[in-house]
Amino acid sequence: MILIADGGSTKADWIALNTNKEEVFRTRTLGLNPAVVAETELRNRIINMFQLMQVKETVKEIHFYGAGCGTPKPVAILKTLLESIFVNAKIFVSEDLLAAVYASSGDSEAIVCILGTGSNSCFYDGKNVHVTSPSLGYTVMDEASGNYFGKILLRDFYYHKMPKTIAKAFVKQFDLEVDEVKFNLYRQQNPNMYLATFAKFMFDFKNEKYIQKMIKKGFEAFFEYRILPFQKSVDIPIYFIGSIAFYFKDILDVVASKHNLKITDVIHRPIDNLVAYHKNKL
Q1: Confidence at residue 9, expressed as pLDDT on a 0 to 100 scale
Q2: How far is residue 156 CA from its own chain's centroid?
Q3: Which end of the chain is more exposed for a tag (fewer CB within 10 A), N or C?
Q4: Contact criterion met (CB below 8 Å) for 34 and 91
Q5: What string of H, E and C letters represents the secondary structure of the chain?
Q6: What is the pLDDT of residue 211?
Q7: What is the pLDDT of residue 265?
Q8: pLDDT at position 8
Q9: What is the pLDDT of residues 234-251, one digit of tens each?
Q10: Residues of the chain whose pLDDT is less than 50?
Q11: What angle do CA 204, 146, 138 make, to 5 degrees?
Q12: Distance CA 258, CA 241 (A)
């Protein structure tokens, strides 16, 4: 049995394949970002998933692609953890950018971007992933991500910059008591995931001028820092992965055209494409 996992900061999708390349089951755990989640919590999120524990001794390979797995230390943490649980499996841990590449362009060159809880981009030359700068995460980077827009929504609400009709709905949907917000931002696990929960609110108001202006400004920042620096030909395909890109594709297209670029495809959830890629390699 082989497990293939696409792990973001909010959630991780798992699919099990048997020796005939047939899907045995699929499941989902909470996010397994080793850069922001403690090892004990990472373990709990895995061992509390019954389906995974049922096959922990029969799994022979795990291909895990995850947020926060772009540098050696968090990769080593997650790899060691998975080896301690799935004792008979060979473990392969790679960054989520590589999963995005395999799920979109496959083995062909392209610029591939992620706009989910966090954000990132790379140029894939057909063999290797290239980035213009490392991602420092949700506190200083992650332009146009869920947590990026979540921070803007919170600031606008407390600074009274949010339109009244939207602010009224915001209050109704979330617990905005100041101590509760601070507790989740500074005392709880995954503040980036907490911030991204506010961004989901935008989907219900995607046609409002306030939301569209915010999204466009965020996308323009993403292009400035994460796409234009590659200085690639306009003929190079550009793919986006993630819910932010998927639900606001029309605005994404507008920003791209401003730079004489065209989005090749936007993929909401990459796990099925990722599994198809692995099936072809098995």
Answers
A1: 85
A2: 24
A3: C
A4: no
A5: CEEEEEECCCEEEEEEECCCCCEEEEEEEECCCCCCCCHHHHHHHHHCCHHHHHCCCCCCEEEEEECCCCCHHHHHHHHHHHHHHCCCCEEEEEEHHHHHHHHHCCCCCEEEEEECCCEEEEEECCCCEECCCCCCCCCCCCCCCHHHHHHHHHHHHHCCCCCHHHHHHHHHHCCCCHHHHHHHHHCCCCHHHHHHHHHHHHHHHCCCHHHHHHHHHHHHHHHHHHCHHHCCCCCCCEEEECHHHHHCHHHHHHHHHHCCCCCCEEECCCHHHHHHHHHHHC
A6: 97
A7: 96
A8: 86
A9: 999 999 999 999 999 999
A10: none
A11: 160
A12: 20
Q: How far apart are CA 242 and CA 118, in angstroms?
A: 9
The neighbour count for residue 53, using CB atoms within 10 Å, is: 13
Q: In angstroms, rounded to a whole number, what is the distance separating the alpha carbons of residues 204 and 240?
A: 21
Q: What CA–CA distance (Å, rounded) separates 250 from 25? A: 34
pLDDT in tens, 15-49: 999 989 899 999 999 999 998 899 999 999 999 99
- For residues 111 and 53, give the distance between their C-alpha atoms in angstroms, rounded to a whole number: 37
The predicted pLDDT at position 66 comes to: 93
Residue type, 26: R
Classify burial at 111, counting beta carbons within 10 Å of its beta carbon; exposed 0-12, middle 13-18, buried 19 or more.
Answer: buried
Domains and CATH numbers, the chain: 2-100+271-281 (3.30.420.40)
